[in-house]
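User: quick one, fold this
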Amino acid sequence: MDNLLIITAMVFMSVVFAVMGVFMFIRSRMERRVLLEKIQHDGSPAASGAIDGGASETRSDVSPFVRLSMWLGNLVKPKDENEISKRRLLFLRAGYRQRSVPVLFLGLQLLFAAALPMAFLVLQNLYLHMPSIYVLLLAAALALVGFSLPQIWLKLKISSRKEKITEGFPDALDLLLVCVEAGMGLDQAVSRVSIEMEDTCKPISEEFKTFIMEMRVGLTRRDALKNLSARTDLDDVNSLVNLIIQTEKFGSSIGQALRVHSDTMRTKRHQRAEERAAKIPTKLIFPVLLFIFPGMFIVFLAPPLIQLFRMWKGA
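Assistant:
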């Protein structure tokens, strides 16, 4: 029984570390590809030659696991363009902008859905020897878990990125207001804020840089702002986008509108902090009951109980 538990724990830890390693490897490859694409925008022939060589090297260096994931993803990817756009939007909200990411994600889901039942069947044949009906049920459950794990990871990634943008958005608005009141245009102010926010809140910096790039390739400011709102999927950003659009439509002062909105965002952040502080006593109830009270009971009741036991034994 002890050997079985040890083997099960080792298999579980191996699968967990394998999944973490795959995601870290894919993330590093994606970051490298983004850097190569940024260099490719340079118009010099030398840079173009360098990037061609780097791209071919990147394609040759792709691991067989990633190639298998891409192949599986291409087999099962939806044919409807609207469905593909919805999936791509989810990855944009998570911070991944490569067009191949949704296909790779689908392939990873299929691989994980197959890997967990296969590991369980290996254990079943070697050590467990369970009834067939239980084997089928557990294999189906593990396949469902393996298919759902990447989706859970994606939702956590989107939630984490939204939280970072929400926390840093009032500071970005303050910087944007300062730049506009200093005489910069809105586009120049957004570009400057994207540089200043790169160290403090990278997601906001990335979204603002994407907004500027869309403006440079020919999109109207209205469309670029709507894309910014769709990528972030946050009420704070959506309200800012609507504010800028309405301000341009009616010709009112953008500086005054930003000042009012910036004050509102700071007030909302302060209210969120107060709400979190008010929840602390409630969250402390279960840790106190489970960990602090038992220790206090042991400290207070152990000496009298020991004395009573000694008296009873001596009698």
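User: anything notable?
Assistant: The chain has a mean pLDDT of 81.
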